[in-house]
Amino acid sequence: MGRRTHARRVGPRVRGRRGHRGVPSRTRVRDPVPVEDCYAGLEWFASRSDALGFDPRRVLIGGPSAGGGLSIGTTLLARDRGGPMPAAMLLMWPMLDDRNETVSAQQIDGVGIWDRTSNETGWTALLGDRRGTPDVSIYAAPARATDLSGLPPAYIEAGSAEVFRDETSPSRAESGRRAAAPSCTSGRAASTGSRR
């Protein structure tokens, strides 16, 4: 089935569900709306595990780039609100830090498809004038979180020559900014040892 056919068949039912904003794709949607929408989706999905036929304790959350950041932000919200906790996170080159101050952010400037300028543009679209200021929440920019305890294990992948490299590197965990974070070594996620 083609993408358009599928969208026509499923689209009206999805758009008509209670709580869906129905915001046109060209409308700018700023923080905290994206992470709140993801959290609402996680709650909705987990609450329908019986009807959909899955074990809610085995849900994995993940995404690439901004989707990776939203995945961690959603999981932080779930932890802090006592909501449904994913079993694991799959984060592909996640966009985590709005400050754009890492070594890799400085190095990848004017190089490649997504560079320092692209990163600033993306974060500014989400946060507006708050980008880089203390007014940014940990749910919007998870690199700002100092307590990552109680989160599920995570597989985190980033290339060696990209803007997000140092936002996800083990050296940041050693520096104390991510000391409580579940870690990933050699492509295997390590457990934090604490689960809700």
At a glance:
This protein has helices spanning 3-15, 33-47, 49-52, 66-81, 103-107, 116-127, 170-174; strands at 60-64, 88-92, 154-157, 184-185, 188-189. The protein is α/β, with parallel strands linked by helices and 196 residues long.
Structure report:
- The protein is α/β, with parallel strands linked by helices.
- The chain has one domain (30-189): Alpha/Beta hydrolase fold, catalytic domain (Rossmann fold, 3-Layer(aba) Sandwich).
- The protein is 36% helix and 9% strand.
- It has seven helices and five strands; from the N terminus they run αααβαβααβαββ.
- The protein has helices spanning 3-15, 33-47, 49-52, 66-81, 103-107, 116-127, 170-174, and strands spanning 60-64, 88-92, 154-157, 184-185, 188-189.
- The strands form two sheets. The chain has a three-stranded parallel β-sheet, covered by helices on one side. It has a two-stranded antiparallel sheet with strand order 4-5.
- Strand 1 (60-64), helix 4 (66-81) and strand 2 form a beta-alpha-beta unit.
- It is globular and about 50 Å long.
- Mean pLDDT is 80; it is low at 1-20 and 173-196.
